[in-house]
Putative addiction module antidote protein
Amino acid sequence: MSESFTRFDAANYLKTPEDMAAYLDACFEEDAGDGLLIRTALNDIARAQGMTQVARNAGLGRESLYKALSSTGNPEFATIMKVMKALGLKLHATAI
């Protein structure tokens, strides 16, 4: 009997805005400081909502959005803020 595995994709589990916000918050907590985990989370959330629509809502080209949120991307902070707004998320700070 052979087993079949599928690759895990977080985008398949991000169904509600609350799921997306909790996922991004967890990634903010765990990011190593290089932003890779945060870019990955934003990429997953954007794919869950539809990259084309998110890019349109953010005022970016779809290819530019893919590049900015890739593992090698280095988006400007303004781009991150546009993407978060397009995703219906906002950035906030709390004291630790």
